[in-house]
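Hi R.,

Here's the chain you asked about this morning:
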Amino acid sequence: MREEFEKMVAAGKLERQHVNALVELTDSGFCMHRSWGFGRIRTVDTVFARFTIDFSSKPGHTMDLAFAAASLKPISKEHVLARKAADPGQLREMAVTAPKELIKLVLTSFGGQATADQIQQILVPDVIGEDWKKWWEATKRELKKDGHFKVPGKKAEPVIYEVKEVSLESRLLGDFKAAKGLKARLVVAAELLKNLGDIADKQATAREVIDLLNGEVGSYQRTQPSVALEAIFIRDELKQEAGLEATPGEIEHMAIWSEEADLGGILEALPAARHRKALESFKLAHPADWSEILMGSLNSISAKLAREIASVLIHEGKLEELKETLARRISQHTASTELLLWLARDRNDSFADILGPEVFRAMLTAMERDQFNEKRSNKLRDFILDDQQLLVELIGSADLEVIKDLTRALQYSPSFDDMDKRSLLARIVKSYPAIQSLITGDQPRQETYLVVSWESLERRKNEYHELVQKKIPANSKEIAIARSYGDLRENHEYKAAKEMQKLLMRRKAELETQLVRARGTDFANPQTNVVSIGTTVQAIDLETGEREHFSILGAWDSDPAQGVVSYLSPVAQALMNRAVGDEVEFEVHGVQHHHRIDTISACQRSMPAEVVSEASALAAEPSGIEAKPAAGTA
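And the predicted structure, written out as tokens:
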């Protein structure tokens, strides 16, 4: 194409300074634009002096030759992008048969280095499909064995290709010695440990690193004990992997755990992967009182570490002691927000018997206390807002008065703004509609009340208290015990206990709905000019001539065998507000009945002495909640 461009220069269509650049572009056929990225040159039009180029975002784009010479960079045909555009199938085959060569191609195309994210962006999805992660992990292992590649420990650092081969052993030892400070050396030592099996003389290499680690551990033991402990762990793992004996006089891991050692501080500074090993080391150093010290540290550590410590305690049979510690901190409102955050996140059935309304009260206290801390955290508050079920689950086993008290505490808490409070209160109201009036200040409509006898009200209240105080807590313990049996998928005791929990909570909700509407009465002095609640009706069946009586009492007083019917029943509804001589019709079990009212009198009832003695107390608050008299009742 040089001759063609020379002709264009002679004809005044092109400046000579552009010729060399245009020749390079046409010879390669591929280019790079700073905004549009990689492009493939499709045609050269010497008549109109323009290229037609396919960019990924601008296919078929035309560009003036002079402008192209100034703004485009030619790409070699051996560049990975050019080869991917020309023959992606060849690169796919290379990914399977020669993955190292493929990575070499990528790296050399970009100056000898590229990050893992850049490599992925180039190869996925045209060359590597959905199995990128698996492919890359396998390829990295091969690259680390090859002396031409330097694979970093951190994802953000580039993979480097070097023409001169450097053995894995030499590279890792060089990086280890060049690292500044023990913490930086531990990163390289961990990498060396992973690749020790691929090193020719692993004992000599491991011994050199171990000796260097031993030389530094002592100076870090008191100033940075967490770094010293991690160094000891890696050193011991290197010895085990290389089959080496301990060096006389070297510092052991238990020496880190002196009496004045800050357990929580050391653990928090360690990588999470080292927590379990560090806890095992601490147990060996403090065989007599390790569990008490661990439980004492729970209130001053992160939620993540609290979970790890709790796991160790449970594994070692210290569940009951742990529960006692948690229950005490919760009841005394001394639990930290991080400890409560762990408890809320896990909501393990092992702690079902302490995961109650008092936990939420303790959360409010902890968050309010945290407002005065310089390094306060909003993690617990955010978790409460994000987890739609947490609040409802925590108050699920509480009676209505406790729920009302918690609702007031939430309303006055400074830990949530008004919008967040409304969101939380809406969750409570959704599960406990009786709380609506407490939040809005509105009173329920009078017609929603139920008129009930003192005896039936007392029975329902007793059933409710039995449910809340005995049956639900007992069920929580059954769940915790059943969960300890193992695999929940095949744990029939656990499934049965969870099913019972659903039944108990459903019945609790039913009773709360009923009790909040109930108004107790003794049915004294009812009006008898018409049928009303508290009257006995004598009526004649007009079909058979038989005389029948109906005592119309409260919503929960039905006893058909004794002629007692609830005022809500179809029979009572047909009779209500009718006078002597009136004829009424009603249906019972699909059969139509036709009666005439003969007499109306006050119902004669006798209440047990113990019920009478409690009537005055119940009258003040008949259902354990605030209530208004129902219209039209005595």
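Residues 606-634 have pLDDT under 50 and may be disordered.

Let me know if you need anything else.
M.
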